[in-house]
Automatic annotation (TrEMBL):
SUPFAM superfamilies: FAD/NAD(P)-binding domain (SSF51905). GO terms for molecular function: flavin adenine dinucleotide binding; monooxygenase activity. It comes from the Bacteria. Gene3D superfamilies: FAD/NAD(P)-binding domain. This is MSMEG_0569 family flavin-dependent oxidoreductase.
Amino acid sequence: MPTAQNSQPTHYSVLIVGGGQAGLSMSACLQEQDIDHLIFEKNTMMHSWKTQRWDSFTLVTPNWQCELPNHPYDGNDPKGFMKREEIIGYLDRFAAKVKPPILEGVSVEKVSKMDNGQFRVVTTKGEFTGDQVVIASGGYLKPIIPRMAERIPESVLQIHSNQYKNSQQLPDGAVLVVGSGQSGAQIAEDLHIDGKKVFLATGNAPRVARLYRGKDVVEWLDDMGYYQKSVDEHPLREGVRDNTNHYVTGRDGGREIDLRKFALEGMELFGLMENYQDGQLIFKPNLTANLDAADDTYKNINARIDAYIEKNGINAPVEPTYQPVWEPKEERENLDLAVSGITSIIWCIGFTPDFSWLDLPVFNGMGAPVHRRGVTNEKGVYFIGLPWLYTWGSGRFSGVAADAAYLSNVIRQAVEEKESTESLSEAS
């Protein structure tokens, strides 16, 4: 695949940081606008998809939602869920179409603005300048592992969800999965299916049905216009960006995940993990609250679908309201590490972004980027690929193309303004 060489110019109209689906989507749209640009990728294109997903990973949204620029889903199972290798193939074919100008294996160390209004990008392969810069490095860069993990005995293997591949990489013995979001719930299921004894420390992640009243819930929500709703139209506004994703799976053709069912089958559930001290794992006594809250979200989404069906007179099979299949007998706040037989812990509590290299005034007091549909108040600086950049699909295959097209038009306007200013300057 073509890769930019250092012999090429060091100044570009646009510099892009990040060579994942967001960066390549931006490249595809800029190519259509005939705007010169260069991508920096510290690893290789689509690195996280190829290295940070477990073996049984699948999409949790149907394949038909994959809609990268000029590259819709191209398989024969639109209502299915691509497996890890199929996803990689889909992305490789996208990269082959885009043929992006990219420097792989090049880390960006600093991005700053110069006195002349251009941007200086310092990399491990030298300095580059650009009239505009797009940050496409994503919001999931630094794995979160709490400091209490330092006190857990070295005899216990500890890994983050981005390191997990399969149960065979773990030592004999039980596993503690910390976190019940999408990754935690699916990894706990993977281990459970493989016959591992699993302890699961739950969190506040909601859940959603896979199929309801004859269709995938994603289809219903799409019909209802949810995926077209912008962050400005969402009841939570920008607060929706902090929401935890609903847990569900595309495994084996797709199904819902019910942690209560796992408990019936022998998985041991706890509330939020709070500490480790003197050989004891300490949990918050909120397991019942976590399970009830997840079920409330599940039922609320189904109720919204019911209302939509009734309002539009749609003929759809009726389903009974969900009833819990298991209830905790007690709230357990302590678990003896040695007695439990736990020999490995998988931390599934998410990631934080890393913009330490971005020396520009584009952040709020919490360190989060401030933007409107990816456009910051710092002229010439843009973000793409972040969760809810504009819609639910912004951080996924379904919405990044629209975001890239929008930003490319904004960038085109800035390019034209620059050219007009230069023309007037030359004429005078």
